[in-house]
Amino acid sequence: MQYKEILDDYIAHGNKNLSAEDEKAKVDAYMQGPFGVGLDKIIGIEEGTEDWITKTIDKIDSMLSNKYTPEERRALYGKYPETIEKAIDWELQGYMDFLRDNSIDGKPTIEGKMIGLGTKEEEADLRAFMDSMSSLYPNNNKESLSLLSRTDLSIEEFKTLFAKAREKATKDVEEQRKQIIKEEQEYNAN
């Protein structure tokens, strides 16, 4: 069985009496599926609808809080699931954490949009832009990375600020490199 079939079967029939071997095989197949796909059937909230991120986080939080203590929930994502129910709960916890990490007050961050929490057009536009910027050094300067966590910028504003931050960082690195070479030359001359 594939991921979607396993999820649909669980939704329709719950945890049937499966042998331990069959359950393990289903868990393994489920865990190989695409992360988060199909969870809307369990959560009942469609991606892209108004305030869907906040509603999804709240719904998953409520669902899992009714089943697990806070300690059990913290441990849930750190242990490979043994049943289909635990595999789905594992995925729900991970999906909720993913949404929390890539949104602020229910709005996707720029990075969130880049990894699929916005529209397909936003994702494609941001990916193409980031691919075009990948040749610039350095890739991990604080100023440009901090822009990825913002929700208050349009994509065009982000692109402008990100390009400027990368350009500045590249110039800073080049200046540092020149200074190091100069100091080495002075040291070697003495």
TrEMBL record:
Name of the protein in its database record? Cell surface protein
* Source organism of this protein record: Campylobacter concisus
Its lineage reads: Bacteria, Pseudomonadati, Campylobacterota, Epsilonproteobacteria, Campylobacterales
